[in-house]
Amino acid sequence: MKNNIAIKVDDLTVAYNYKPVLWDIDLEIPEGVLMAIVGPNGAGKSTLIKSILGILNPIAGSVSIYGKSYEKQRALVAYVPQKGSVDWDFPTTALDVVMMGTYGSLGWIKRPGQKEKKLALEALEKVGMLPFKNRQISQLSGGQQQRIFLARALVQDASIYFMDEPFQGVDATTEIAIINILKELRKANKTVIVVHHDLQTVPEYFDWVTFLNVKKIATGPVKDIFNDDNLTKTYGINYKVSIQE
Amino acid sequence: MDITEYIKLVFTDYTLRTITLGTAILGAVTGMLGSFAVLRKQSLLGDAISHAALPGIAIAFLITGAKDSNILLLGALVSGLIGTFWIRGIISKTHLKSDTALGLILSLFFGFGMLLLTFIQKQPNANQAGLDKYLFGQAATLVESDVWLMSIVTGACLLVLLLFWKEFKILLFDADYTKTLGFNTKFIDILITTFIVLAIVLGLQTVGVVLMSAMLLAPAAAARQWTNSLGIMVFLAATFGAFSGVFGTAISASQNNLSTGPVIVIVAGVFVLISFIFSPSRGLLFKQIRFIKNRRDLQLHKTLSFMYHIAETHENISHPHAIKILNNFQGFTKGTLQKLVRKNYVKLEGSMWSLTTEGFKTASNLYNQQTENNE
C-alpha cells in the first residue's frame, strides 16, 4: 500500500564546527505515514528536519521530495517550528500569524487579500482558535500559540508536514486537539513527520517511527520496530517500555 | 522668545527652517527603521554602525583633503557597511555571541577613527578643523542639499518598506519559517540592514557618532508601548522621531549654546519615559492602577464568598453575624464590609452583618464566572 516514497534522504551529514550532529543518514519515508522522530537531546532530531527543509546546510548528502529536489517541491512542504524559536511579544495578532502561511504561494511583494484571509480563518477554525483571531499573540497560552503555529502550516495546504516538538509544553486538551488534526491529515494521505519526546505515546499516536542518535538507528512501522532493543540502542541505557497491544 | 514668534521664525528663517526640516526627516526615517532593529533584538547594531562609520569619515578626508559633507558621508557609509558585515561575519563564523561581536567592532573601529582624527589634527592643513563635529553632531551645519539627500533616502526607504512590508514582517517574526517558504532571507536582511546603515550615516552630521543609536532606538521603544500592530508601531516611531527632531531643534534654538543633537536625543528620551509610564496597556501607571483595583475587587470577593460559605451552612441565607466572628476567621476590615453594604450585597442591622439575597446570588455567580474565565 505504502509504495510512494514521499521523502528520500541520502548520506546526509551535518556538522557544527567539526563535530558531526548527523552522520550519514539514509532515510526513506513513505507517503501517508504519521512518523515520530525520537532520540535523546542532542541526537540531531531538529537538525534533521531543518536540513531537509534547507534551513541548515548539510556538508554532504542530498534530499528529495517525491523524486525532485526540495527547492522544486517547496510548495508541497509545510513546517511547524518549535514554539520557543520566535518572540511571542512581536506586535501582531493570531490571524496575522496564520496568514503568514499564505505568503509562500503569494510570492514576493504581493499582499494577502480576502482569499488569503478566508483560508486563514478556516485554519483557525480547524484548530479551535477562531474566537482568538484578533488576540495579540503574547496574550495566548502556550497551547494556543502552538495551535496558531499548526494553523499557519495548515493554511499552506501541503502534502508533507514537518513539526518540531508540537507537544512541548502544551496541556492535555491541546495535545489531543493537535493529535486529532494530525490523524486527519494522515487520513487525507498527507505525510506528517514529528519530532517527539514522549516515548509513552509513540505507539498510540504514530504508525511510523525513526530512531535517531547522530546516526540513524532504525526506521519503520511502529508495530515492527518500536521495541526495547531499538530504544536501548538509541538512548544508550537499558530502556524498558511497555507497549500496549 | 515666545512660541508664536518661534513658529514664525521656522517658516521665515532659512537656517532654522533647514535644520527643523532636516532633523524632523531624520527622526522619522530613523524611527521607522529603528522599529525593525528593536524587534530583531539588534538594538545595539545601530550603535556599532555609527561608531564604525568614524574611520570612514577620517579616511575620506585624508584621501580628498576636502570637507565636502557628501564625500565624508560616503566614506562613513563604506566603513559603516564594512563594520556591519564584519559583525555578521564574526557571529556566523566564530563561537562569539552577537554582543561580543558588536562590542568588538564598535570599539575597534571607533578607536581607529579617533586615532585618524588626532593624526589629521596634527597635519599642517588649515582645512582640518571641525572634523570632530561628527562625534556629537552639529545641526547648524545642515544645508538645503543635506535635507534633499535625507528626503530622497527617506522616500526610497518608504517605498521599499511598502513594497516588501510582508517580507520584512515575516522575517522579523520567524526567519527560519520565512526561508522554508522560499524567500531569500539574506536579501531581505541585507535590504533592512543597508537602510539602517544609510539612515545612521545620514544622521552623523546632525546627531553625531556617539548619540546616533538613540535616534534609532528611543522612538521605536516608545512606540512599542502604545500598540500591538507592527504597522502602527512603525508609524508611531516615525512620528515620535520627527517630533523629537522638531522639539529638540526648537529647544536648542531658543536656548543659546545648547547643542542640537543631545537635545533631540533627550526629547526622544522624554517620549520613552512618557510611554513607559502612561501607555494604557503596557505602562507602569495603568499596570499599578489595575493591580490595586484587582486587589480591592478580590478583597471584596473574598469577603463576599466567605460570607456565602457561612450562609450556606445556615437555613436562612441572611443569618446575621457579629463582625467579631468574621474577624476571627480572616481578619476582615470593617471597610470591606461597608463597601459591600454600599453595593447592597450585605446589610448591617445593629452590630450584626448579614448577606442579602442579592449578595448571595452574586457570590454564587462569582464562582461560576471564575471557572468560566479559566477555560
From TrEMBL, chain A:
Keyword annotations from UniProtKB, A to Z: ATP-binding, Nucleotide-binding, Transport
GO molecular function term, any single one: ATP binding
Record carries keyword rRNA-binding: no
CDD domains assigned: ABC_Metallic_Cations
SUPFAM superfamilies, alphabetized: P-loop containing nucleoside triphosphate hydrolases (SSF52540)
Transmembrane portions of the chain: none
Domain ABC transporter: 7-239
Family: Belongs to the ABC transporter superfamily.
The protein, known as: Metal ABC transporter ATP-binding protein
Native species: Flavivirga amylovorans
High-level lineage: Bacteria, Pseudomonadati, Bacteroidota, Flavobacteriia, Flavobacteriales
UniProtKB/TrEMBL annotation, chain B:
Subcellular location: Cell membrane
Chief place of localization: membrane
The entry's keywords: Cell membrane, Membrane, Transmembrane, Transmembrane helix, Transport
Transmembrane segments: 21-39, 45-64, 71-89, 101-120, 147-165, 190-218, 230-251, 263-286
Membrane topology note: Multi-pass membrane protein
Short name of any one Pfam family annotated for the protein: ABC-3
Gene3D superfamilies, A to Z: ABC transporter involved in vitamin B12 uptake, BtuC
Family according to the record: Belongs to the ABC-3 integral membrane protein family.
Listed name of the protein: Metal ABC transporter permease
Organism of derivation: Flavivirga amylovorans
